[in-house]
């Protein structure tokens, strides 16, 4: 079993302290630390031991900005949900100075190979492992669902060098929090039955 530095948070502390962070310092997470996070990610449970995950790390700020602009453009052009298009939230998400990655210095993509019906579930479990491990190491993360649709277009997969049959499941921004995020309270677990 791997030893964990006692300066790091325990798993229970990480579960309760992890927050979606949307304000980062410029400090780029080292390659060594990201490799540790990916190693934690792949310890996740995996159906039929398929290990369907693949990862991509993007730290090029110009590329991150281009993906962000592309996602915002797609949202601007979408006519699918007229009520949302008219909303203040839509205006916020398409504003010129809004970056869907909140200027985070790193983006990790958790991607799935097309194997079995649980590939997506496995990847989300890996994503949570990664986020909890990041929290334990004093780093901050946030899932950016906004990026999923655009990243899964053939154009972006081609540009990123991801083959067409790979599905991008969980884009996760990563870095050092510039300020501590406030806890978002949860409703109590609703128990439907206990028989
Ligand atoms: C599947 C998924 C997609 C998400 N997409 C976004 C997103 O596009 N942008 C964003 O700012 N936060 C996104 N979030 C973060 C959630 O808003 C956040 O987890 C939620 O408000 C609860 O806050 P907490 O993580 O601090 O507990 C996403 C979270 C999940 C699980």
Keywords:
195 residues; alpha+beta; NADH Oxidase; 4-stranded antiparallel β-sheet; 8 helices; 38% helix; 13% strand; binds flavin mononucleotide
Describe the structure in your own words.
With 195 residues, the chain is α+β, with helices and mostly antiparallel strands. It has a single domain (25-77, 87-175), classed as NADH Oxidase (3-Layer(aba) Sandwich), CATH 3.40.109. The protein is built from eight helices and four strands; from the N terminus they run ααβαααβαβααβ. The chain has helices spanning 11-17, 31-41, 61-77, 82-85, 88-94, 119-136, 148-151, 154-160, and strands at residues 53-58, 106-112, 140-143, 167-175. It has a four-stranded antiparallel β-sheet with strand order 1-2-4-3. α1 crosses α6 and α2 packs across α6. The longest helix is centred in the middle third of the chain and has 18 residues, at 119-136. The model has no long low-confidence stretch (mean pLDDT 95). The site of flavin mononucleotide (FMN) has 10 residues, from β3.
Q: What is the domain tally?
A: 1
What is the fourth-level CATH superfamily? NADH Oxidase
Tell me roughly what share of residues is in helical segments.
25-40%
Q: State the secondary-structure class.
A: alpha+beta
Beta-strand residue fraction? 5-15%
At the fold tier of CATH, the topology name is NADH Oxidase
- How does the overall form come out from the CA principal axes? globular
Rg over alpha carbons: 18 Å
In brief:
Helix content is 38%, strand content 13%. The chain has helices at 11-17, 31-41, 61-77, 82-85, 88-94, 119-136, 148-151, 154-160, and strands at 53-58, 106-112, 140-143, 167-175.
């Amino acid at each position: 079993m791997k030893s964990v530095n006692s300066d790091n948070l325990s798993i229970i502390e990480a579960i309760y302290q992890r927050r979606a962070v949307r304000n980062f310092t410029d400090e780029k997470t080292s390659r060594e630390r990201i490799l540790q996070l990916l190693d934690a990610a792949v310890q996740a449970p995996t159906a039929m031991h398929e290990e369907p995950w693949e990862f991509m790390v993007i730290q090029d700020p110009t590329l991150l900005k281009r993906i962000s602009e592309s996602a915002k453009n797609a949202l601007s052009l979408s006519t699918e949900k007229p009520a949302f298009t008219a909303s203040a939230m839509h205006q916020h998400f398409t504003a010129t100075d809004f970056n869907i990655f909140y200027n985070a210095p790193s983006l990790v993509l958790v991607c799935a190979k097309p194997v079995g019906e649980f590939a997506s579930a496995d990847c989300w479990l890996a994503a949570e492992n990664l986020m909890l491990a990041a929290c334990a190491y004093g780093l901050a993360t946030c899932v950016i669902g906004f990026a999923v649709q655009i990243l899964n277009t053939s154009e972006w997969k081609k540009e990123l060098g991801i083959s067409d049959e790979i599905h991008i499941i969980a884009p996760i921004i990563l870095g050092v929090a510039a300020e501590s995020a406030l806890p978002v309270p949860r409703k109590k677990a609703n128990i439907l039955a206990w028989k």
